[in-house]
């Protein structure tokens, strides 16, 4: 089974290869999605990573609040986005 992780407070210059490099030592990385601003196309400093369960737990424990590129990373299990309810 796989888990999706949220990784935040990334340096804006971070690449998928750099992120993969710090995560692969903890387990198999299945996908990486770094989020960009819709209007400017510039990085927003966070993304989502799909990893195997054990690797995800290891990555959270090892990387949350660790310094990367001059910033302290935030790494935790991603939660589903709650869509606002429409009112009548």
Describe the structure.
The radius of gyration is 14 Å and the shape is globular. By secondary structure, it is of the alpha+beta class. It has helices spanning 16-23, 53-63; strands at residues 2-8, 29-36, 43-52, 67-68, 71-72, 74-77.
The CATH topology is Alpha-Beta Plaits
**Proportion of residues in extended strands:** 35-45%
The end-to-end distance, rounded to whole angstroms, is: 40 Å
The residue-averaged pLDDT reads 93
The major sheet is characterized as: 4 strands, antiparallel
- How many domains? 1
Number of helices: 2
Count the E strands.
6
From the alpha carbons, calculate the radius of gyration and give it in angstroms. Answer: 14 Å
CATH homologous superfamily, by name? Answer: RRM (RNA recognition motif) domain
Salient structural properties:
Alpha-Beta Plaits, alpha+beta, 2 helices, globular, single chain, 88 residues, four-stranded antiparallel sheet, two-stranded antiparallel sheet
Walk me through the topology.
Elements: E1 2-8, H1 16-23, E2 29-36, E3 43-52, H2 53-63, E4 67-68, E5 71-72, E6 74-77
Short description:
By secondary structure, this protein is an alpha+beta fold. It has helices spanning about 15-25, 55-65, and strands spanning about 1-10, 30-35, 45-50, 65-70, 70, 75.
């Amino acid at each position: 089974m796989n888990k999706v992780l949220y990784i935040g407070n990334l340096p804006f210059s971070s690449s998928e290869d750099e992120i993969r490099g710090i995560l692969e030592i903890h387990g198999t990385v299945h996908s990486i999605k770094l989020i960009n601003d819709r209007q400017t196309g510039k990085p927003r400093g966070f993304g989502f990573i799909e990893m195997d369960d054990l690797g995800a737990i290891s990555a959270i424990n090892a990387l949350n609040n660790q310094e990367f590129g001059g910033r302290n990373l935030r790494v935790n299990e991603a939660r589903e986005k709650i869509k606002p309810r429409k009112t009548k």
